[in-house]
Amino acid sequence: MENHIPPLIKKILIGRGFKTEKEMSEFLFSGISSLSEPFAIPGMREGCEILKKSILGREKIFIYGDGDTDGICGAFFLLKLLKLFSVEYSFRLTHRLDEDYEIEETLIDDIKKEGYSLLISVDCGISSFAALENAKESGIKCIVLDHHISNSTHLPSGHIYIDPFVENNWPAGTENLSGAGIAFKFVEGMALLLPGVSERYFHNFIEVICLSILADFLPLTGENRILVKEGIYRMPFTSIKGLAYLIARQNICSSCTQRDITRKINPRLNSPGRLGKPEIVLNLLMEEDDEKIQELVDEIEKADRTRYRNVSREMLRISPEELNKGFIISESISPGICGIIASRLSGKYNRPYLVGSTFDNLLKGSIRAPKGYNLYERLKPLREYMHSLGGHSTAMGFKCSAEHLDRIKQFWEDIDWQMEELHNHYDCELNIDELTPELIKEMNDYLEPYGKGNPAPVFLSREVLVKNITRSKNEERTFWVIGKKGRMFESFLADNTMDLPVNEARIDILYNPRIMGTNGLYRLYLKIYKYSASDFVKDRDGG
């Protein structure tokens, strides 16, 4: 029996490049059974064979993960695997306060002294050139499970690198996996090689991969879409006791939303790492004792409150000049919250921001940009000043000597930040008079989760009438639009830098319809990305 696809959904997907109903059905309805085989990923079988040999040889294994949600979730899968075989192992997560995002070279010396023969890194390691070279010379084999951009020509031979930016012939749909997603594939592969464990065992923890993908704001296409969609559904019923307790604390009961994860759960999972204690979260995911779980959740909640206060305090200290230039450096900012501040400012002012902290003659921080910028390419010239600089096209971390501060600032201020035009495009025309709660719910049921690669639909509606009705100072950017048939919708502008339209004007709008409601009561409203005098949009590509 074929799956039914409503006309509006077909129209949206055709506009997004889907050519056949088969392609549409695969995008809309694919589930866990559609995930690719782990050994289709380059380097995966070789890496699994090395770990199998270490496990059977009773060798000591060291796990090293990034201290954010993605790295912690990836480490969770590796520890779950090793515990099944009673292997002697230890783990460490990066501490954002006093370490790089990569593997410290001194770590290799430490684990060599302690007799470890295998190091597995997750969500980091691909730019740890010096540490990897040291490991090679020390006889320590490394398996790097990462998804960050790197200059692969600098990677020493003799190790296994499982990263889509090192080998680009990954199966379609896997090229945007999170670090934890790659770790999941890795343990799936181990289950195929080792007796006594089924790959389906690790399917019990799909929700953990969902957390990692949403935490890193990765594209929600391919296998990421499957993992997030399934993970959101499973989240309230998770078998991970610590995660279940944390979820219950947020009053998330029989159903969970993407917003619940991005606004309530993930910020808490990230908070201890911001304060230099990421192992609290990994311990929570691994813990089975109820009393200890409660203590760990209490620690996480306390860390989250501290993180919130610290960010709020530092945001108030930012000067108008710093806001205008997008370059903020301070001794008072903790390195652990630089990324949060940069992300908030970038989202609010729709431009790139660099936020850094100076300490011990070092400069360390984070860079964030909205979609439409490519930080990795634009900032390549800064590498000559950096101890480390890596990440994604819209999110990067860095560390360098403070003596380079003036050069970096000058380089930043000289950049002509040009953003590609994003909001002239729309999916199709949809007059606001046609909007109903049922239509919006149907659209969301089919197309969610929304994110990079699968944005919430944007529609064009022509000749709507503006009615400026300001209720309070807090809603000064809220206005109303009236369709040709008299239907009226509350609206707000997506970009805070846009001017409000003129009252009583007839305008064309590019908008996304939204619905809020409980217990049969609902409210429809419009998020407007662009507006202009009627007929400003001449075709589907914008005018």
Question: What does this 3D model show about the protein?
Answer:
The protein is an alpha/beta fold. The protein is 39% helix and 19% strand. The chain contains 19 helices and 16 strands. The protein has helices at 7-15, 21-29, 44-56, 69-84, 105-113, 129-138, 179-193, 199-203, 206-215, 222-234, 241-249, 258-274, 279-286, 290-317, 320-325, 338-349, 375-378, 405-414, 437-447; strands at 61-65, 89-93, 118-122, 141-145, 160-162, 327-330, 353-359, 362-368, 386-391, 395-401, 428-429, 459-467, 478-482, 488-493, 506-518, 521-533. The strands form three sheets. A five-stranded parallel beta sheet has the order 2-1-3-4-5, with helices on both faces. A five-stranded mixed beta sheet has the order 6-7-8-10-9. It has a five-stranded mixed barrel with strand order 12-13-14-16-15. Strand 7 and strand 8 (362-368) form a beta hairpin. Helix 12 crosses helix 14. It is globular. It starts with 6 loop residues before the first helix and ends in a 10-residue tail after the last strand. 41% of the residues are buried. The model is unreliable at 536-543 (pLDDT under 50).
Summarize this structure as a short list of keywords or feature phrases.
five-stranded mixed beta sheet, 543 residues, alpha/beta, disordered C terminus
* Count, helices: 19
Q: What is the 3D form?
A: globular
Number of E-type strands: 16
**% residues in beta strands:** 15-25%
SS-derived structural category: alpha/beta
Low-confidence stretches: 536-543
Assembly of the depicted chains? single chain
Mean pLDDT: 91
Measured between the Cα atoms of the first and last residue, the distance is: 42 Å
Q: Main β-sheet: number of strands, strand sense, barrel status?
A: 5 strands, parallel
Give, in spatial order, the strands making up the sheet with the most strands. Answer: 2-1-3-4-5
